[in-house]
Structures are given as C-alpha cells and as structure tokens.
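Table 4 source record.
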Amino acid sequence: MLEANGATLDPNENALIASFTETISDQEFNNDTPKDLPEHKATTKGALTTAMAQMNERGEKLGELREKTADLQSDAQSYQKISKQLKLKMKQQEERKMFGLF
C-alpha cells in the first residue's frame, strides 16, 4: 500500500492511475480538426483531475472509517473489561450474602 495526500492507496489503484495517466499523456487526437485539440486536452485533464480528487476524498473517508473502527473496538474492549469486573463483584457480593458475611 502506498500513500498519496494522506490516503493509503492499494497497489491496484496506483497501477490504474498510472495506466490512466499514461493513456492520457500518450493519447493522440485526430489531426483533421486541430481546432478541437485544446478542448479535448482540457476535457481529458478535467476528467483526470476530477477522478484524482474523488480518489483522494475516498482515501480520506477510508482513513476516518479506520479511526472510528479503532475507537469502537477500544470502547468494546473497555466495556467487556468493566462488565467482567462488575460480574465478579456481583458474584462476590452474592457469596457474602449466602455465608452471612455482608
């Protein structure tokens, strides 16, 4: 996994981006209509920019989900620990009542 702008990218995503970027840079346009060439380049560049921005946003959202998942896991472990302590305490109190020690 590689990181780009704080987002972790899967190697497949990197390969896809590299392939897309290479395709864009190597793309040849029809020489019969040179007046359309700048428009095609602008459209392609815009699409690439949009795709990269969306990918960065996706990476940020995935990072937030990882953090929330870690927090939830930590909270669940704390809850489990406290519930075990409470169960043990309640059991000890019951035993004391049974033997008249309380």
